[in-house]
Amino acid sequence: MTDTSSAPARNRVAARTHGTVRIVGAGLLGSSIGHALVALGVDVALADTSPAQLRLAIDYGAGRAARDDDAPRLVVVAVPPDVVADVIARELAAFPDAVVTDVASVKLQPLRDLERRGIDLTHYIGSHPLAGRERGGAIAARADIFIGRPWVVCRDADTSAADLAVVEGLALDLGATPVEMGPEEHDRSVALVSHVPQIVASLLAGRFTDAPDGSLGLAGQGVRDTTRIAASAPELWVQILDANAAPVVDVLDALAADLAQVADALRAPDAPGARRTVADAIRRGNDGVERLPGKHGQNRRFEQLVVMVDDTAGQLGRLFGDLGELDVNVEDLRLEHSPGAQFGLAEISVAPATLRPAAEGLAARGWKIASMND
Asked: Model-level pTM?
């Protein structure tokens, strides 16, 4: 069974979602939604075209098998992008009194498809949780992947307040933050912050295929950070990129122009203005990173403290324990292991005011501080 250790705490909070929730698609997102709702005591009915996937999701506790006599109040369509419109149309016809939403990562193309068919979309509201993992399927599902993440809700002028409350209530129950956005704006936004980063990460990681082992042995946390999502499933991403091709191409064309400009500067680094071109590109990246929302959606920046941690059991727990005793809140954490080394580097993000007290307090407790940026 999946880890539901957080279920008791969640059950103490009254769920906004009630009645039966039908989830069509028992993959990563569908099963994760199921786990979170089951932990809240909601009746979850699962359906999937793959009997094996469905059985696996049920065995892991994401819900029960859907029945013919189910009368869901909410239907969540969590299927691949190339079939999402077909499934939405089918569910709207089968359950005309239910609110139907989908969690596909592209919103405009399925909507246009449904409109062309003349489907009654009165009770349909497209949505998209900005959450996921590199691995897919029911076995990778987790109830907590939505916590603190944006959940886009694409309402229109005909959306009733009651139907909107059902979808936003689902997002809130799962710990996400509802964000209202039109489908066109959504697709342009995810092209920039999700779809193009996937392509860039995949292309960069693809350069490693024929690289010498010695070169890859020098890889540090920076290259791991920039290529982490390159492990994603090609089959799914082909569908996503096909459905959102135009906004993705716009960003790629602009990025290609930026790359060409930097490459030209580096071909003749002593030419007038070449070094400034490179510096401006790096500086613009600094400015862009500063605009990314951090913890709790704030644009607040934190200071980093790097601590050497022996590669033995219990050391990371001891480090967190010591930070707790020092009343230092860990805002973020990254771990890096150097090949062949018997220690790791824990890069800890803390509020600026606590950086020096944290460093001094940890040093007094025997920790070796590798670096700190104050």
From this structure: 0.76
